[in-house]
Specification:
Elements (H helix, E strand, L loop, with lengths): L15 H23 L2 H5 L4 H16 L2 H4 L1 H8 L5 H20 L6 H21 L5 H17 L1
Length: 155
């Protein structure tokens, strides 16, 4: 199933059903935490960015780690460095690192809330593009959507 051999992954003794459940639980918890981060935007804008950043970033990492149940961490990292996903993966991890660095070491920079909001937005967009890269013909779909959006501006 899904091109995964029985002895692959972090726990080779897990059945495919157990792996799918683990993947689904990680995805669900990750998305719940990311959505929970959105409820902390007011806190971010009032000068307390940590709750927003922690929820959003842990949610993103947890969602990405869900694939480890299916393919294993080594294969997941190899797939992230595939030329088709490399730019998105680097962007994602750069946003995660910059976001965490700003929160813990940035003090109170002017406009810090807006910068963190932008970084987390790019982080979530990069995650969506990364996940979408696994959809067959996704590059063709994105190209058509891009052209359609561009045509709206011409009207």
């Amino acid at each position: 199933l899904l091109g995964i051999k029985k002895d692959e992954g972090p726990c080779p003794s897990m059945t495919m059903t157990q792996r799918l459940i683990g993947c689904a639980v990680c995805l669900a918890l990750g998305y719940i935490l990311s959505i929970g981060g959105l409820f902390r935007v007011v806190s971010l804008l009032k000068g307390n960015p940590r709750p927003f950043v922690i929820f959003t970033t842990i949610g993103t990492v947890l969602s990405l780690s869900a694939a480890c149940f299916l393919a294993g961490p080594a294969k997941q990292m190899k797939q992230m460095l595939d030329p088709k996903r490399r730019v998105v993966s680097v962007t994602l991890f750069a946003c995660i690192g910059t976001t965490l660095a700003l929160v813990w070491f940035g003090g109170s920079l002017p406009g810090q809330g807006g910068i963190l909001l932008l970084l987390c937005g790019v982080q979530l967009a990069a995650q969506a593009f990364y996940i979408f890269s696994y959809v067959p013909y996704s590059d063709k779909i994105l190209e058509r959507v891009w052209k359609w959006c561009a045509s709206l501006g011409d009207r």
